[in-house]
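Margin note: ligand = adenosine-5'-triphosphate.
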Amino acid sequence: MSTAAVKIEHLSVCYGQNLALSDVCLDIQQGEYLGIIGPNGGGKTTLLKAVLGLIPASGGSISICGEKAGRGGQKMGYVPQITAVDKRFPISVLEVVLTGRLKQGLSPLFRFGQQDREKAYEALEKVGIRHLANRQTAALSGGEFQRMLIARALTVEPEILILDEPTASVDVSSCSQIYSLLKELNKELTIIMVSHDLLAVSDQVSKLACLNQHLLYYGEPKLSQEMMVHLYGCPVELPATERGRLF
Ligand SMILES: Nc1ncnc2c1ncn2[C@@H]1O[C@H](COP(=O)(O)OP(=O)(O)OP(=O)(O)O)[C@@H](O)[C@H]1O
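Resulting structure:
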């Protein structure tokens, strides 16, 4: 049997006295496309950050392809949830994508090399915005901006792509383009995506996790009204495609 891409065992994470995650166990297989849903404050971002080794576990453990999380050399690309951007900040698309190549412990004299530029252009090509390389980020649409962030994550040549609400503030047509791109990338990469978009989650992913401090569900991407009440504490309008296959 192959090693799990991400193995989470009895994970808990606290911020001071605030318990954000409690006893979460999850085995994410290589090649999986996992969607994570849950209410605001349910611990979704915290789970992603713990997997990335950005915050410590208070209890339990996480391993990535058999290695303890947080060790150097683990191939994960991260598309963070960006809620506010200062549009006046003068930076081009290529410059943002290149920041994905930055490593820890850089000298002040560091300059990006030819290989960094090649990787950045390759990533831009992959997400379909190479032609925007020299454009200022302030002049991008919401969908183009998200593609740029995905390109940035791809420059580390990840085996696992982790995305936190990649379609927040993106219109319907750009959303569907981003989901097509993710489907394509999933042919080569394991994907873990947090989303509030229930239609996307039920339609796009291969596995679904429902998180509200505890892991309430992990399995086939089917949504039920019972599950929604359990997760959100009230009935939720399910997408039309889901209503047709309620279980
Ligand atoms: N840096 C922090 N310091 C203290 N508490 C935090 C910190 N980050 C998150 N929390 C708390 O941890 C809990 C989980 O937050 P988290 O951001 O992981 O939830 P989420 O499910 O991603 O929420 P959302 O859907 O709103 O993005 C919340 O109660 C939040 O207030």
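Residues 15, 18, 20, 38, 40-46 surround adenosine-5'-triphosphate (CB under 6 Å).
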